Amino acid sequence: DAGVIQSPRHEVTEMGQEVTLRCKPISGHDYLFWYRQTMMRGLELLIYFNNNVPIDDSGMPEDRFSAKMPNASFSTLKIQPSEPRDSAVYFCASSTLGTGISYNEQFFGPGTRLTVL
Amino acid sequence: QKEVEQNSGPLSVPEGAIASLNCTYSDRVSQSFFWYRQYSGKSPELIMSIYSNGDKEDGRFTAQLNKASQYVSLLIRDSQPSDSATYLCAARSGAGSYQLTFGKGTKLSVIP
Asked: From the centroid of its chain, how far is CA A22?
């Protein structure tokens, strides 16, 4: 399996521009998570999907952030307009629910390092 | 608000020693706990999970859970320089919850 795939790996943009981050989860996984990681705040959950449906977006910082999952193999996280404080590493992770509480291990993609100038 | 607290470190141990990493959590209904390892510039990688009070061993790694004290730890025996990384502790509330709350991580340095 190729694992979770994210693109681009690095993105440098100017304040005010639209940024779109992409994620392809592991085939067969029905949960997809978007995280943001900074030195100050650590790893924060932004939003997660189950079977392509957004379940909890309470971590999305502002209306400038939006996420979609049009099908089981693709998700996007969009920031419009971008601001310097959005600079961070954005991770996508996927998992599948097994039986009991011993499953739902989350597998992380390589991340997208976003720099907003 | 659910919180997971870790000492940010850095924690330095000599090669071959035991490294002890600690984590506390605030949500009493948390049931599942995970340790992720993150090398610099890389993504988090799951190394241990624990759900019941007591110890769970996997190779050189031992996870310990004490739900009464809301405390989780990770012991790394015979530490190697390749163990140098940031270790993230995460908690999941219950069988109906699929979200993880992460601590900010402890940076471990194993000195040759």
From this structure: 8
